[in-house]
Amino acid sequence: xxxxxxxxxxxxxxxxxxxxxxxxxxxxxxxxxxxxxxxxxxxxxxxxxxxxxxxxxxxxxxxxxxxxxxxxxxxxxxxxxxxxxxxxxxxxxxxxxxxxxxxxxxxxxxxxxxxxxxxxxxxxxxxxxxxxxxxxxxxxxxxxxxxxxxxxxxxxxxxxxxxxxxxxxxxxxxxxxxxxxxxxxxxxxxxxxxxxxxxxxxxxxxxxxxxxxxxxxxxxxxxxxxxxxxxxxxxxxxxxxxxxxxxxxxxxx
Length: 253
Hints:
Muramoyl-pentapeptide Carboxypeptidase, domain 2, 34% helix, 253 residues, two-stranded parallel ribbon, 12% strand, alpha/beta, globular
């Protein structure tokens, strides 16, 4: 499908809030796929591991994902305009990094909202960082290798404007944010229209090959994990917790 057509198709607006309880109730039947590095096909995919770049404790200098996730990324990349590429910010994530991100964001929200009860702080944080988990039946999405955070770069290497930075913990990061403004009768600025159309492009090329989107983050897409199984109404998820096969390291999980 032509890019201009994809940019003209609205992103569906979710009918309700994301329900982590229902997500985690999805059973997992691990299919045994390995994790593979995502940086070996720079003609289509560029890797910029943001948590390693920012010095987050436990982050790795490579992004890994399941084999089928990688194949689907390649398939989706072929739908982009000539010269455009995916830019991967994060994919498989160690539990140590998950803890660090959750705690850091929670502290940030607490500083902004000092009188907010603990449970409300947790719920606010959960919108942007999944709860760290060592339960093999309730892993965080990124720990399965089935989640990927990404954007698009044009033929000159400039990131497409999406309306917010990656990991922006505000309402504007919701994938359908600009669609909802339109539905409310708002008149979008030129830059807002640009962001909306770029989000549509990313959303449609990813979902057309089988990924699902986490509704509160325009950059987050899933395949094979519990997020994906819940959105697709699949009987079970394909991916549970996993770690890369490092012969000299057994402490990265």
